[in-house]
Amino acid sequence: MLNNNTICAIATAPGGAIGIIRISGSEAISIADRIFRPVCSTLSLSERKAYTLAFGNIVNANNDVIDEVLVSIFRAPHSYTGEDSVEISCHGSAYVLQQVMLLLTENGCVPAGPGEFTQRAFLNGKMDLSQAEAVADLISSTNKATHDMAMSQLKGHFSNELADLRAHLLKLTSLLELELDFSDHEELEFADRSELYTLANDIHQRLVSLARSFEVGNALKNGIPVAIVGNTNVGKSTLLNHLLHEEKAIVSDVHGTTRDFIEDSTIINGIQFRFVDTAGIRDTDDIVENIGIERTYKKMQEAKIVLWLIDEEPDASKIEDIKQCVAGKKLIIVRNKIDLTNSSLNDSSSAKPTIQHSKLNIQNSQSVDISAKYGTNLPLLEQLIVETANIPQISESDIVITSVRHYSALLKADESLQRVIQSMNIGLSGDLLAEDLRMVIEHLAEITGEEKITPQETLNSIFSSYCIGK
Length: 470
Prior knowledge:
The chain is α/β, with parallel strands linked by helices. The protein has 14 helices and 14 strands. A 7-stranded mixed β-sheet has the order 3-4-5-6-2-1-7, covered by helices on one side. Strands 9-10-8-11-12-14-13 form a 7-stranded mixed β-sheet, with helices on both faces. Strand 1 and strand 2 (18-24) form a beta hairpin. Helix 6 packs antiparallel against helix 13 and helix 6 (157-181) packs across helix 14.
């Protein structure tokens, strides 16, 4: 439930030259008026028009000036939250911001809770639930792809798609329920079964397409997991440091230096990858190292792409072990230490790019020759990683699912819809069809936070499109 408090919060990160304090609620403008003194004007904030700026000073009860500020005014319902709102642009001093916050709370404001401004926007009908979630995604976006996905959802592209599906489903549900009202006339069918069957299959395909986009959306939002695996001392930590462009992992000639996994993210060609440097695989009596090796196999299972680093031709048992571990995954065999076989390769400009299909009899794998020590062919490896990820170009017009909650709701909606299709195939009655269609609509409504179908909505749908007996 929406409370009636007027809330305030610092809306900018600390350390900047400018700090912004937001106020929202029925008393936002009047409270700001109590601590603001305009310069070169006699108009109070309450007397000013919406979407205007006022220059002046924030003063305390003793009329001491706290800061020179600009104040922006927004009036309900044309504001982010749908309420009267004020934004005070101060200097970025932490002391100044805290003093202004203190004055606001002394004059009737309540500090906002996490996400409360966006929560009010949702409760006041300024956005639906999926758009509200997109605000958080936009704030946390780290590359163009995640930015475009968040903007698409924030602009309502996903919501509009769901609204269109809901409208079609509501129409047919209403007609099926109308048949129940005329149940004494068994020959009457208001909902054409062939039309319903065609529409149900069409919506099924649209739901499947949306659900399938989750794999891409989740990968782009959270980063594509890439495991770097191999024997001890093949150069896994050196490779990780090169890929991350920082000394993240300890590099040593001592076998078993990495006893646990080290994980960090980097952006390659606008796509976020989560690289994991794992413990070297070998037979050992060291209990701690064996725990690390167990985690290596677990990380291979979690990864979408596995980089198998080798510095010599592996034996048949090792190849078979890797084949079992990477079944269903994408494997890149990275032949490291080519600088040891060709001294000229310590100069990356003289390296000959080589990407080829693996000769190790592992299906769908590719291999590349590198020198992690000198960085030879690493741009080629990065290119191969991006190509192997096979992520399509994303634009703001594309609808890509990134939320587990949305994905789960889509699967449930499609499950109910498939029951509708199966029921029609065996000729079940309209009341059972209507119930399953209602379930589809309710699962889709979970995504946007809409209410369940009301009887009034059903009546409106019937009488807006059809006239019975005039």
